[in-house]
Amino acid sequence: AERGDPLWTALIVDYLGHQSLDVREAALIALHRLAAPGCADIVASISLRMEDADIGGRKALLMALQQLSPPGNQPAILEAARRLTDSSIEVRKMALRVLGALAEDLPPNLERVLESSLQDSHASVRKTAVSALEKLAAKNPWLRSLLLSRLEDPAPCVQCAAILAAGRICDLDDEASANTLAACLDSNEKMCEAAAQQSLGWLLQRGSRAPLPALARLLWHGNEKVRESANLVLSRLPPR
Fold it and tell me: Is the keyword Repeat assigned to this protein (predicted)?
């Protein structure tokens, strides 16, 4: 078969929905060797087979979409976006990863579905949404605000992901987010406390002074551990 042959490409895409994991992996390897990157026929074939595939098949099809489509490929991005409301938790998470990898800017008309992803009833989906959408949130104030709302998520794993993202993407003069991060130094969850130390350190190193008032107050906190955490963060303040 010649590279880019549409008939062979369509035939191999069929096997991405196979019940056997080994067969799906072999089909993905074959597509890498045969398909032309970004080929419209591949995206069309994947979209056509998505509805009839089982959960494993839909995940494999999305993985192929990510690996075989160049960044910014709109048909691939739209297909991933359609899977954000999939009935399967695992498929929704894979769709978020694909969207985050391929989209270079916030796709139009996706505000409601992205908001739903960040408010999904399953913590693992919300955590994936925070991580996958961070790059887009850095460029889009609306999405950044929505993502930073997860700083107060009830699930520690989601809150931790949002804390780390905040240190990389929040505005340098965002005092509200800085205060929330500083409050996390008093968290009962060790991973959230450690993430807050890291995130506040990143903010200071980026040149932000927004965390300084809250950190100064924490130096007088009644809990010695919190005072030590605040001191540790302030030690990362770059010299003027």
Answer: yes
